[in-house]
Every structure is written in structure tokens, then in C-alpha cells.
Amino acid sequence: MSMMPDQPGTWLHPTADGLYCGPGGFHIDPARPVERAVVTHGHSDHARPGHGAVLATPETVAIMKVRYGADAAGRFETLDYGVTTRIGDASVRLVPAGHILGSAQVVVEWRGVRAVVSGDYKRAPDPTCAPFEPVACDVFVTEATFALPVFRAVPAEREIGRLLRSLSDEPGRTHLVGVYGLGKCQRLIALLRHAGYDRTIHLHGALAPLCALYEELGVALGPLARVAPDGGRAGLPGEIVLAPPSALADRWSRRFTDPVTAFASGWMAIRGRARQRGVELPLVISDHADWTGLVRTALETGADEVWVTHGRDDALVHELGKHGVAARALALVGFDDEGD
Ligand SMILES: [Zn+2]
Ligand SMILES: [Zn+2]
Questions:
Q1: Ion ligand 2 — residues with CB under 5 Å?
Q2: Which of 67, 94, 206, 220 is the most exposed place for a label (fewest CB within 10 A)?
């Protein structure tokens, strides 16, 4: 569909600050402070403080304010899913990406050419956010965090079942689960609730503010309690305690009773990673598309060009090439995949 002279690449292109839309005068998920940013979701490698103006979903704006403060941008503007707005000469619409609460694909159009910047996304169901919606486009801009055939999603429910089985097999031990604070934490809690686990879930204090925000935004998480800062000597045997990954190995974790250390992440698909981190119970729960999901999604959009922003770009570029899609790596800097 794309044709000269309005070919993307001229009106939408990578810069040192990130992807830039010339006719709209905005960057998408810029790595450095810019005048005008459109932000796909709240993870820190996509949403950064210091921009003149930020346009994002109401949920993403709320997340940015909790994490960085209400004055983290000169101006915040919200745009609901599915509503088209104009920025400069471009039109912009946000569509669910299925990655975390508020996560969006940015649909940009200029002179009849449509590009979709998907940010981070997944195709697997997630009770804490709206599901990914494929959008037909000329250019599809994709991540490639888990773009190797070795990354194959397993149903998250199965991993939750393993956690609950371990809890009943080892009732005297605390189950200490490492989770990233935005997205993974709340998804894990919601999945436990869906599996019928209705006991209090204990949280490291650092996880509490975003859980409170999710609840405020309508995601029910059930009974939660903060682990007291000094812990006393409660030990919490037989209970589930969630903590940021960095807390798993530090002295904070020593208060618990003979803990089973678990870690919920897409990276747990690599056994060596789990061993290296001393994880006894690796839970493969990813908020990114797996290999099949990445390839299928890119083809489903019908795009004749696919740009890969970050991650394992060469495998994906090669695979899409086999399907006749012109794919190229943008190798954008500054993405470290906070959420997985
Ligand atoms: Zn993310
Ligand atoms: Zn990311």
C-alpha cells in the first residue's frame, strides 16, 4: 500500500531520541526528554519524566504520575482507546496492546499511509488489561524481546497451578515470589484470584502504591497486606509474599521461614537464568509476545514493512523476510524491558 513520496521512513523515522513523526512533531516513547511525546505504556524504558507534553491513555498517565510525580511532564493529555486525535498534520489513535494496564499501540496516519507502533505487547490473555487488537497497516513497528523460537509461551494458569501446588506440598515454607512492580505483580495477583486463591497476599512495601492504583482504576486484587518494614519475626510460613526481584537475595528476605524462592518472568523459560539467580521455583509468565506471537502478529497486520525497535531483531527480521515482508532493525537505544 505504501508508495512514494509519502513512504514511511521519510515522515516517521528513528532518531537518537527515538521514533519521530515529522508531520506530527512528536516522538513515540523517546529515550530522552523531548517537546512532545506519545507514550505507549508506563514501564520506565518507554515512559520517562521530563517531556514538555505527554499524550497517553488515562491509565498510563495515572501510572506516570504515581511513579514520577504529577509534574513529571510539562503537560499531560489523555486519549482513550479508539478515539482519533490530530497532532500537527498527523492523526493518532491508541489501541490496546495487551501488555499491562493502559498499554497502547500508537496508530499514526499521514496522507493515507498508516503505521502502527506497538510498543511492548502480548497476545496471551491477561485479567488486568484490555486484549491486544490487531490493526491493519502499511508499516508495523514491533519489539522483539523474546524473538527466538526457544521462547514459547506456556499458559500462565499452568504456572499459577505449579505455585499453588508447591504451597500445598510445602505448607511450612514462605513462598517468596519475585515480580516486577508494574504489570507482572498485579497480573500474578489477579491470576491467583482467578485460580480461587482468596487468602491475604503479602507485599513488599515497594509494590504497594501501584497495586493501590490498579485497584483505583478498577482492577480488583483481593486482600493484600504490606510486610511490616522491620518484619518482626512473623516469618509468614505457608503464605505468598511478593517482592521486587532485587529483594529476593537481600537481607529483607531473611525474615521468612525457609522460603521457597520463585520468580515470575518470561526469562524463566531459560533454565540457566533461574539457576543463576538461585530461583527454586521458576514461573514462566511473560508480558511479551512469544516467538510465534511476534511472527503471527506482524503477518496479521498485512504490513509490507516491519520495523523492529529493540530485542533480538535479527531472528525476527530473517523470519519475516522468508514470508516476503521487508523487515529491518532500528536498534533503538534505551529499552531494557523493565516488565519482564
Ligand atoms: Zn513494557
Ligand atoms: Zn519495553
A1: 45, 120, 335, 337
A2: 220
Give yes or no for a contact between 203 and 240, defined as CB atoms under 8 angstroms apart: no
pLDDT tens for 73-129 read 999 999 999 999 999 999 999 999 999 999 999 999 999 999 999 999 999 999 999
Distance CA 120, CA 180 (A): 15
Ligand 1 centroid, distance to 196 Cα (angstroms): 28
Q: What is the pTM of this model?
A: 0.95
Domain with CATH 3.40.50.10710 in the chain: 156-283
For the domain made up of 156-283, the CATH class stated in words is alpha beta
Domain 12-150+288-329 in this protein, CATH class: alpha beta
Single out the residue of 299, 105, 261, 104 nearest to residue 170, CA to CA.
261
Q: Ligand 1 center to residue 320 CA distance, Å?
A: 23
Rounded-to-integer distance, Cα 163 and Cα 297, Å: 30
How many Å lie between the centroid of ligand 1 and the Cα of residue 41?
7
